[in-house]
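Example: DNA repair protein RadA.
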Amino acid sequence: MAAPRPRPPGYVCTECGATSAKWLGRCTECGSWGTVVERSAAGPANRVDAAAVPDDRRAVPITKLASDHAVYWPTGIGEFDRVLGGGIVPGAAMLLSGEPGVGKSTLLLELAARIASTGARVLYVSAEESTSQVRLRAERTGALQPTLYLASESDLATILGHIEQVDPMLFIADSIQTIASADVSSLAGQPSQVREVASALIRIAKDRNLPTVIIGHVTKDGQVAGPRLLEHLVDVVAHVEGDRQTSLRFVRTLKNRYGATDEVGCFEMTGDGMTEVADPSSLFLAQRGAPVSGTCVTVALEGRRAMAVEIQALVVKTSAPNPRTVTNGVDSSRVAMLVAVLQQRLSLNFAGHDVYVSTMGGMRLVEPGADLAIATALASALMNRPAKPRSVVIGEVSLVGEIRPVTQQRMREAEATRVGLTDVVDASLETVHAAIGRALLPAAPRGE
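Written out as structure tokens, the predicted fold is:
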């Protein structure tokens, strides 16, 4: 048999597989930093011959495999269990990301304390804080438990030694970008280090059937820092959202092999830690008073949960040559499109006006079902006509001014009725003009 032909010299990107003749700090194909390595470091140079498959590992028809369901281990935090799909699955690897100061460590310390309160051993390794700092936060939040073990360590081998010594039932690493392996020459946080550390921790999680939660940093764009391989390796990817100036926090699943994706848990950051908010609709609508122009209520669908959210708009005259459009919690391009529809289909003149649109409570609306509510709030602010006190507006707006129905309409209506919103304005009115006329109070007579 002829000898295998070796690969030509060069470099390859471990993220996308792109090749280059020289080393590059950033891959020209996928844009990843620090992923271009020599071919010899990326993998073996020769082809691999087929190996004999043992009898106990032979491939079998899928119809003959047992359908074992994942066993969920409730954490005691209802909102977190909702996000995970019912609880923690033994052997699962979870990645929790979020901006600095949003409450990732506080939430996981509360999770560790809840699990430890059942008598289970929990190992919490902090590579960013000392054990005394974690202890102070645990005292403040009431998370002191005798079976909760703390360690401040950034060396991967020592962390694996802690796991062998403690033999925990839950392991938490804070954070993966600050843990380094001595077998990799690069600094902590580099893609090669993140890959090595993540692979080792996930391998331990699978071998020992140990549920593992890893905290990950984010970039300025809000993406998980490090190689995309990290998100592919773990079983669950969750993200903590919320404005640090407000107390409301949302935990959103972006990937879940054991449950629904895009599920949302609602928490409130208090002096005693993270508190569950089981009824976010009442929280968003708690301080609503007399009808005011520029406000409108819609019911948004987050995962399998319907939540009533108030949208506020402000339209102000300006002498600047380029009026501004400022948004908070909604997509600015979506607002610009709705302003254009209102100008073209309803002849509302937004020229020479600054437009401000915001959601209450830090809620982020990404679904098109909030289009009609945003348009109604904008028209209400421009015409100075408040919305009816018990109205709720639901629907997607097209460029031709038509209202399209949204998914889970019955669930949204049921949630609106539960919080006392009985006048539903939706796609049954067909056009934006008819819907806004139905949702707003009549114009006040001149002179008032």
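Residues 191-208 form the longest helix (18 residues).
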